[in-house]
Amino acid sequence: MNKTGYYTHRDCWKHDMGHDHPECPARLDAIEDRLLMTGVSDALERREAPTAALADIELAHDRMHIAALRGLTDRLVDEIAAGGPEHAQLDQDTAINAHTWQAALRAAGAALAATDAVMAGELENAFCAVRPPGHHACRDKAMGFCFFNNVAVAARYALERYRLKRVAVVDFDVHHGNGTENILSGDPRALMVSFFQHPFYPYSGDQSPAANMLNVPVPAYTRGMELREIIEMMWMPRLEAFKPEMIFVSAGFDAHREDDMGQMGLTEQDFAWITYRIKDIARRFSNGRIVSCLEGGYNPQALARSVEAHLRVLADV
Ligand SMILES: [Zn+2]
């Protein structure tokens, strides 16, 4: 059995943060086009993302944070009906429209449903082509284009629902996954390994705050070969020692050399290599179980090629 799930939902296209915002629906179009054109789509089991239950989102977020997002959405819908603007700004980079709440429920729901399917053995692994992304969303705060932390919600769910003892989170986005760190730091059932450009948004992570966090800040212009060495020397021994029963991936592709959001030098070959290493750990310790969720990646062509490379490894095509 080697089936790879592909979770998405049209609601994820409807969330929009305003004209010219880099975290835009066209990102998902670019991915879908590329997967169709290359035939990789045919190797995937496509599934609709359900909406997440609020009780499951509460595994990683405060009730007040969830209620606030719901309330802001209701207010925005009323304001739009009264002729107001289409968006409400939460911070400098992060805004909601009338569809954000539903898209955020689908994005977290994709990660949860993928977890169920992988745990049930229906799928070996899965990729969630969703937006909004999640890894900057903290327990009580939306930020950095993120509202609910899809990966942290699913990781906590796997621990609670399936009584797993150890889950790993691997984050290769160019930005530090401060939200995931905020939620999982100090939880010995979770190990998070990441690298990220530093100093850079969100200007955190230069120190690992707890024993279960392995943060590897790297300078701008770091290239693939250097990163592969870092991963081999720092991530791999920690993952091998931890022996995760399941692996969650914050799959951001904004460390690509053609992505102007960051200044790192990775290519699709590097993303494929990282995916091989993750898959190797999953094969040895986790019964192959991987749930990967889209985070960043803002050059649509580079993003699409990188997701293709990631999926070719996950699905063995
Ligand atoms: Zn990012």
TrEMBL record:
Protein name as annotated: Histone deacetylase family protein
Family: Belongs to the histone deacetylase family.
CDD domains: HDAC_classII_2
Source superkingdom: Bacteria
Organism: Curvibacter cyanobacteriorum
Residue span, Histone deacetylase domain: 21-314
